[in-house]
Specification:
This protein has a seven-stranded parallel β-sheet with strand order 3-4-2-5-6-1-7, sandwiched between helices. Strands 8-13-12-9-11-10 form a six-stranded parallel β-sheet, sandwiched between helices. Strands 14-17 form a two-stranded antiparallel sheet. Helix 14 packs across helix 19 and helix 22 crosses helix 23. The chain contains 25 helices and 17 strands. It is an alpha/beta fold. The chain is globular and about 80 Å long. The longest helix has 23 residues.
């Protein structure tokens, strides 16, 4: 069976071999085993259920909360020759009726549905009459109340399973999930002894950077000018910030779209479509945008503000480099961002337990911003990979500043926290250490402590940053609340007792932009992109559904001169070779002739 799957992989998708984790998952599903897959964005999750769906008799259901992703994937599958459709709120009544009629007639190998569709009695009656061998649940973390994107409608999936006889195989997929969220997925989706595959969270083609202490507008202008013509997403935390950033880019002469919940549905749809079709290179958005964008050639994701948690950040940053080509993930940090996120938590409708969890998640995000260790290792360790290696590419790994022994400064800070009874936060602790003539400091009698003013030669914001670094690296703990309180960990106690030294790079990194560079596109690559865009416009599909950037780049390296040679390029399946091969070979031949002469 797996040999047939390999042949189908080449025939339909144009790939000679499975990627990490794919073969194990495909084999399990074809053998009738449930599965839980945790695979980073760009690792090829979709093929893990699309290939079995193609090979199994009947119609596979794919449950996804992402309406935009449904359309993208359905377009791409139909372009490949696999009959697929979707059911969601974007369909008119006549379109919905026609699709459901065609489902009943068995015309489709796959149907994508929004979880809200499970509330429809008509739909539930229909599926009970169909042969459904497999249900794939995408973004499965949405089933967990401990996940970053809980969707109550996902709890209807067990009801769907009870409607279908015999019970179909169930496969759950997500890019990010802590151990607690994984167990919730297994429990809530009633997975039966699932095959578990975690391919690792590290993205070897992505470079992560945290930039602090810069004028964000100046950085944005410089960054965007260096990346003219590249496709990218800029995330901001509020609608107002999105509008402001986008207006600023327009004034710079950079055409950019915007996307947030305050816009009309029509404007959001138009912006998204222009971005997908490469008519807009840059999108400025809140986190309402991007989760469902299957756009392969996003070269950078820049977070203008700190996100609410590491799971959201890694999901959003993962929009870059889905094609396996280099991508950049840059986060601009400012202390005010933390206050904005706390305000959003307090304004939310969550109960106190949920808010406490949101504050804990925000603290993990702030630790990421301040760690002096490898950024990618920090993230994958958060998700449970304890033996992760350093990436060697991020802004921490490439930081050339000398490591300094700051044990004495650390001891002063730890001593001050102890003398303040471990009952106060970062700001007032920094004021005491600096010796600030502050009313609150005097009110509590902290101006009489031995640690008052012991770091008087430093600015308050420098002391605050150092405290944050020590917290990020596990010496200090902050409580999970709106006003977090500092306390010492055992590591800090060891430092106070003289049993451990503290060495850090602690100055602000202000020139990270100079290290955030990518190689430019070559001439042939540009010509192939122009051809792809022309073909995509004629077919009225996004360019990446024709070929991904990685496929075009391999063409540039191989310079295929025949259909047989072009068929060896990854991503060129039989149908696309027949439909587009001649046009791409002609462009390559013309380029080869010009460069030869």
């Amino acid at each position: 069976m797996i040999e047939q799957a390999r042949q189908a992989l080449k025939q339909w998708f144009g790939y000679d071999a499975f990627r990490k984790g794919q073969e194990e998952l495909v084999s399990a599903l074809l053998d009738g085993r449930d599965a839980l897959a945790v695979m980073p964005t760009g690792a090829g999750k979709s093929i893990c259920y699309q290939l079995p769906a193609l090979m199994l008799p009947g119609t596979t259901l794919v449950v996804s909360p992402l309406i935009s992703l449904m359309k993208d994937q359905v377009d791409a599958l139909n372009e490949t020759g696999i009959a697929t459709a979707f059911l969601n709120s974007t369909l008119r009544a006549d379109e919905l009726n026609r699709t459901m009629q065609e489902m009943e007639e068995g015309r489709y190998k796959m149907i994508y549905i929004a979880p809200e569709r499970l509330d429809s009695e008509r739909f539930m009656r229909l599926v009970s009459s169909l042969h459904i061998p497999l249900i794939a649940v995408d973004e499965a973390h949405c089933v967990s109340q401990w996940g970053h994107d809980f969707r109550p409608s996902y709890m209807q999936i067990p009801k769907l399973l009870r409607q279908i006889h015999p019970r179909p195989v169930v496969a759950a997929f997500t890019a990010t999930a802590t151990d607690k969220v994984k167990e919730d997925i297994v429990q809530h989706l009633k997975l039966s002894r699932p095959v578990r595959v975690t391919t690792g969270y590290a993205r070897e083609n992505l470079t992560f950077s945290v930039v602090k202490g810069v004028d964000k507008r100046k950085f944005l202008a410089s960054y965007m000018q260096q990346r003219a013509g590249q496709s990218g997403i800029i995330y901001a935390s509020t609608r107002k910030e999105v509008d402001s950033c986008r207006d600023y880019l327009l004034r710079l002469g950079i055409e950019a779209g915007r996307y947030h919940a305050g816009l009309s549905e029509q404007e959001r749809a138009e912006s998204q479509e222009k971005f997908l079709y490469d008519e807009l290179k840059v999108m400025v958005a809140t986190n309402a945008f991007g989760m469902g964008i299957d756009k392969s050639n996003v070269r950078f994701v820049l977070h203008y503000n700190v996100p609410k948690n590491l799971e959201s950040y890694y999901q959003e940053a993962g929009r870059a480099g889905r094609d396996g080509e280099p991508g950049e993930c840059v986060l601009l940090y400012a202390p005010q961002d933390t206050m904005t996120q706390k305000f959003l938590i307090e304004q939310g409708e969550s109960d106190e337990q949920r808010k406490q969890m949101e504050y804990a998640n925000l603290r993990d995000m702030i630790d990421y911003c301040h760690t002096t260790g490898c950024l990618q290792k920090h993230v994958v360790t958060y998700f449970g990979e304890q033996d992760a290696a350093e990436c060697g590419r991020c802004s921490s790994c490439t930081d050339e500043r000398e490591v300094t022994d700051i044990t004495e400064h650390a001891q002063k800070i730890f001593s001050c926290v102890v003398r303040m009874k471990q009952r106060f936060g970062i700001t007032i602790t920094a004021k005491v250490l600096r010796g600030a003539k502050d009313a609150k400091v005097r009110q509590f009698g902290f101006d009489r402590l031995p640690t008052y003013g012991v770091m008087g030669s430093y600015k308050e914001k420098e002391i605050v940053q150092l405290i944050n670094v020590l917290a990020a690296d596990g010496y200090l703990r902050l409580s999970d609340s709106q006003f977090p309180v500092l306390s010492l960990t055992q590591r800090a106690v060891a430092v106070l007792e003289g049993k451990e030294r503290v060495e850090q790079r602690v100055t602000i990194v202000e020139q990270a932009a100079e290290r955030i560079m990518l190689a430019g596109d070559d001439e042939l690559f540009d010509r192939l992109r122009q051809l792809r865009k022309s073909l995509a416009d004629k077919a009225k599909v996004p360019p990446f559904t024709i070929f991904h950037d990685a496929t075009l780049r391999e063409m540039c390296v191989r310079l295929p001169a025949s259909e047989a040679e072009l068929g060896e390029v990854k991503g060129v399946g039989e149908r696309k070779l027949a439909r587009y091969g001649r046009a791409f070979l002609q462009v390559i031949a013309e380029y080869a002739a010009e460069t030869k002469n």
